[in-house]
Amino acid sequence: MRFCIRDSRWQIWIAIPLLSLAFLFSPPQPALNAGLVDSVKKKIDFYRELGMFGNVLEIVRRAYVEEVPIKTLIYGAISGMLSKLDPYSMFFTPEEFAEFKGDTEGKFGGIGIEIGIRDGFLTVISPLEGTPAWKAGLKAGDRIVEIDGELTQGITLLDAVNKLRGEPGTKVKLKILRKGNPELIEVEITRAIIQIEEIKYADIITGKDEPKIAYLRISEFTEDLPESLDEKLKELKDKGMQALILDLRNNPGGLLNTSVEVAGRFLGKDKLVVYTKGRIGERKEYETAYSGPVCDAPMVVLINSGTASASEILAGALQYYKRALVVGEKSFGKGVVQQLFPLPDGSAVKITTEKYYLPDDRCIDKTGIDPDVKVEYKFVLTPEEFVELLRGEMSSEKVFEKIKKGEKIEEKKEKEELEREKIKHDAQIQQAVSLLKALLVVEH
Fold first, then answer.
1. N or C: which end of the chain has fewer CB within 10 A?
2. Distance between CA atoms of 142 and 158, rounded to whole angstroms?
3. Is 334 annotated as catalytic?
4. CATH architecture of residue range(s) 106-190
């Protein structure tokens, strides 16, 4: 191995002067050769730097205090190289890649958050509603600075995921840095099997004598979402829906194709929703193909800093076609496409190859979607009422009151009551209701 590296190095250093002399004494070439010269220079630089890597590998192999397997060094080098590209590019060992593909699916629990690296911090993109992370009070934008006593400085996404998941019922301790809070927040969360319910709530939320404004919240873009959405929209239409609030807050995204399918329910057929573009390959456009009944009711889309990826694409497309008013706070800004490249030994690399662009050429990556109407999130309740609502619990007085009346205490009914109370005290939803009432008045 040593002699091969040295031989290659000498070949490189001999080749460089010879190529330089060839360029120096060769007759003048047409301007068309400028590109060729530039290409050759880039290759020379590439092999020079590759030679440096070989030198360092040889130094570590020979001089490091302990013997380290070559594969370990190579894996470490690849992992470090990809970590310098962006927060989403990463290297999988054969074991990690098998796990990633789902070979061990169902054996691990989690806490229910979508995470990313933002400004060097392990950041919560969105806590999934109803999960342990949600119940523990984690919020979009929280920075996880410690996991089980270990600092997350320099952590990769893959390492973070491995630390956060584990057997259901086990606990993980986090320290959180939250904007506006000078002290670290400590939380202990019990892992659980995470089950996604794509549509969390769908119903008419206005009073009897008011315009019938519906509210529908999508938690994630799963494969089954379009079919579920069709059912819910039909139910709302049967209830006399005149306008719709589509809540995409804390929606971390999901499947791109699902986002395009959902857009078709509101935009109709043959509408460009998003396109992808990278250094290799052609621009790829994603258009709606839906030919069923289109929901044409006036709309407001709610977004916040937990709205990411596929949910940003939907919000941006509806905003571009002026199909809906976007209300709330600036979205997260995740608009990149990763591609997996399996390697011969069973390992793999996942690298960013393209970015998402909206029909008006906006790239949402790192910039996000700006709302048409900015409304900060406020929840107007006392601290005690807020805690009760988050837990979904009834006070003892309410329980005994129901027992005295002989009423059943049904969990589903209480969850629906809980949702209605949360909606009633949510400033962003109430602002959306006001805007839609005004739009309905103008239309009539």
1. C
2. 18
3. yes
4. Roll (2.30)
